[in-house]
């Protein structure tokens, strides 16, 4: 704990986490917390230990007492919090089938989009696929591919411009 407090030593914190996390979870479960809530208590406790390591004073308490007190206080805070309301169920109208013309039109649009994507250059398609279908940020794509950020942005922009040009007729109908 002193290494974490004095030097912000991540390896020492990892050892603290590995030692105390299962014990804290067991304590929380024995005190009536569910498994997920117990894991939340452990995460919050260990985050607090990292953030407030500078407040630890070995002359006032042992490491275990300090950490268990943080966990107990976190569990008390969670038990005092009012229960979250359950989401309301959305009622859907029965008996209204989808319009066959709309289904056919949507199917045709999907085919046109698929064809337009297939005509993109492979590097443009790859970037668009990662950004929009893979939901990756530009920096995540850069880390994954090793390409410069400007190249990634250019390929996405050029690919989207080409798709926009090829699919402009869809909006007019």
From TrEMBL:
Q: Which residues form a coiled coil?
A: none
Q: What is this protein called?
A: Sigma-70 family RNA polymerase sigma factor
Any Pfam family the entry gives: Sigma70_r2
In what residue span(s) does the RNA polymerase sigma-70 region domain sit? 17-81
Looking at the record, the residues that make up the RNA polymerase sigma factor 70 region 4 type domain are 111-163
Keyword field: Sigma factor, Transcription, Transcription regulation
What family does this belong to? Answer: Belongs to the sigma-70 factor family. ECF subfamily.
* UniProt cross-references to Gene3D superfamilies, sorted A to Z: 1.10.1740.10, Winged helix-like DNA-binding domain superfamily/Winged helix DNA-binding domain (1.10.10.10)
Domain of life where this protein originates: Bacteria
Q: Which NCBIfam families does the record match to this protein?
A: sigma70-ECF
The organism's lineage? Bacteria, Pseudomonadati, Pseudomonadota, Alphaproteobacteria, Rhodobacterales
